[in-house]
Amino acid sequence: MEMMRVYNLKTNRIKNPMGFVINKPKLSWLVESDTAKHQVAAQVEISADINFENIIFDSGKRTDIDSISYSPQVELKPRTRYYWRVRVWGDDGSEAVSEAAWFETSKMDEPWKAKWITPDFDPSVHPVVFTDFSIERDVADARAYVCGLGLYEMSVNGEKTGDEYLAPGLVAYDKWIPYQTYDITSQLKKGINTAEFLLGNGWYKGRYGLNRKQPFRYGNEFALICEIHITYQDGTADVIYTDTSWKARKSKVIDSGIYDGEIYDDTFCDDAVYPVRIADLDVNKLEPRRSPGIKIKERIKPAEIIRTPEGETVIDMGQNMVGWLEFTNRAPKGAEIMLQFGEVLQDGNFYRDNLRTAKCEFHYISDGKVKKVRPHFTFYGFRYVKLTKWEGEVNPEDFTGLVLYSDLERTGNITTDNSLVNRLFLNALWSQKGNFLDVPTDCPQRDERMGWTGDAQVFSGAAAFNMDVFAFFGKYLYDLKQEQKARGGNVPVVVPAHDVKQNGACGWGDAAVIIPWNMYLHYGDVSILEQQYKSMKGWVDYIKSKDDAAGGRRLWLNDFHYGDWLSLDVEDPFNRFGGTEHAYLASAFYSYSAGIVSKAAKILNKKEDAEYYRKLSEEVKNAIRKEYFTPTGRLAVNTQTAYVIALYMDLVPDEWKERVAFELRKKLKETKYHLRTGFLGTPYLCRVLSEYGSNDIAYRLLTNTDYPGWLYPVTMGATTIWERWNSMLPDGKVSDTGMNSFNHYSYGSIVEWIYRNAAGIQPVEDAPGFRRFRLKPQPHYLLKSLDAEFLSPAGKIISRWNINENGSVSFYFRIPFNTTAELVLPDTEGTGLEGVHELECGEYTYTYMPKRPYKKMYGTDTPMREIYENERAKEIVTAYLSEMAGWMLFPMFAGERSIRDFVREGLLQIDEKTLKEIDEKLSKVTVE
């Protein structure tokens, strides 16, 4: 058995990246050891060959090499593969060397020989652009540097190149255009070779954007640029590149669109070959890619074939997913098959009204050959597929769901004893998968599917626990920065902005600040702050300019805001903007973002900026206190979200915090402990409750199964997170067709609370990337057990707890190599486990009887609603209260009030001795 293992080598948080932006490589690795606990030294070698005979960089054995983010000082050449390995020495004298990893540079600053070309025929006709070239020598290696607009699939000699789809992805095409790099060495042969590029509309050229009457398009023509660099074994080289010698033909893709789907005619045959011409596109906009490609990450089989009451044939995949439905074609030549995609059924029938104008269809015309068929240049968000014009028996084995999302490593998992909570976690994970197709989108199915900044911001913390999203969000933030440059610091509400002209709003524009900060905390890589600092600063400066123009009160009083979007604290059912005053929310985010910019400036050694934005944050905070708080600490904005934001964003002076926390509890009690928060309040709600002594309420909010709450959709059969708390009503009816997505990750932000508070895995600002982290689990009897695993940038962290039958609680923790954890166990008074424990690498177990009972027991402080749900508890209470106040036993009256509440209110006259007698008897009742 290995004593030490070095593994999971990444460059810029990507395993073996080829053709990415790697001007300054950041190397990282993980270590597992049976005996060593810390890295005392490391050595990194970079070589031009896999045998490490031509080493171009050798750090030597050093004690200051950081395994989370090491930056070798090395000059890189274009189009070159570099191999690297690391040797690690442990504090017990052990050592180990990794297997070789590699990264391969792009063209970097090398000029393009290739030209953008476009077919010389009707630009609405989908083309195949191709060339033939001859190879007479033995090939050592070959690379293709490619971009096709809108979307493309490349093949060489009839075989698809690479395993990516929907390339080049979604970007601000008017600002920059990413190209991809493919290793095509194994696809080439001696003699004549053919390279073909199938092109589709995609986001660049197709119908896409919020203006559905006059769709905006980045471009009106298909376009391709390609350089194929071939190196022969004799050391010579050739370059094949796009120019007017290339040819085009009309493809079998008759039409394609992100929203409407695809029409593919396998009977279409046009042998005509058409010329190409030089396209009017700027080669200088081409840049290397920044994020992992979209791939088929999973395959699932149908759960059921349904015959609906209306006689439709519908395939139920059993999971709301994003991607394609591949099928085996057995239809005769000329037969048409049509697939329509939807998320839910209504009255047992196929339904897709909530998709608005998006057709979401796939039309296929058969060539009579038995083969696998799939779309190419679209994607669908669906659970149900209506099958039309299918001939013969519908065999589930003929269908496979191809699940598409960005190629991101899964890093987190949560399981509990509660199957509904487990499904909630999976719902959030599936919504992340379905909305992480190169851009963090709001939804994957209707005529929208855009990178809304607010949605991305509120979910970014949860996303970073579930998957390695550093490169993914790095590319999104790069787009955000490009869009921001032309807007004077203003951040569009959608990135890429496409046709959206609207100014940034609080909580949405703050994505420019909060997302890079979350990435820094989770991954410990300062490069994200270096990349985004001007953008972060620009957003806060933009808000300040609006503030100054309005009189400089250090409040953000004007402008449009979405507010606490889709909250439930307004009477008007058509009001989507929430009941929390927008100026209050805007000013809160103003202060919060300024504070983060100050922290980022300090990390980047920008001392003057750090002080400037710290002072600005404090000025805004003081203005908020003056405007919205009374001298005794009463908050003038009386909503759940207002209290949550005040506490989370540190707007409340220390002497008022208990009062504000009390008012939040009071507000929740008014709603019988059901949330009313929307997009801006929900991410922080349970985190604030757990931090301010109301962990019990946080768990209650989590485990409520009725509306509104996280588990209500689960009880309704949801397999992803809904856009609205009541996207579907209890009777199974869809609540609103105008804006109602059944795959919308925003409210899945509760997952971050589960990781951070329930499991207690928390990053710390002074040691980001989990080099050091806090473990502060907070169990509660509403869950009997919880198991959280997180593959952090520093290694796998496990936090596991179980509430035992005797009321004791057991914990298990796993601390990764070369890290330390600050452990704070809950309710340890009198156990000898009080205080903060510093844990180094290893496994730890603790079992003790907590000061507060973790095993649920009934008592006189239990809400009467819960008492009434247990027959034995109800009998005990009835025996004591029937003569005095039997009318109080009715749950519709008592509700959340307990016997002791009635005593305090003067509605019951019971002495303490009797109350204790009732407590004693109730404590022996088994909780059902």
Describe the model.
This protein has 928 residues and is α+β, with helices and mostly antiparallel strands. The protein folds into 6 domains: 4-105, Immunoglobulins (Immunoglobulin-like, Sandwich); 117-258 and 266-288, Galactose-binding domain-like (Jelly Rolls); 294-404, Galactose-binding domain-like (Jelly Rolls, Sandwich); 423-705 and 731-759, Glycosyltransferase (Alpha/alpha barrel), CATH 1.50.10; 763-848, Maltose phosphorylase, domain 3 (Sandwich); 864-922, no CATH class. Strands 14, 20, 21, 24, 25, 26, 27, 30, 31, 32 and 33 form an 11-stranded mixed β-sheet that branches. Helix 9 crosses helix 11 and helix 11 runs antiparallel to helix 12 (695-703). The longest helix has 23 residues, at 527-549. It is globular and about 100 Å long.
What are the key terms here?
928 residues, alpha+beta, Jelly Rolls, 6 domains, 11-stranded mixed beta sheet
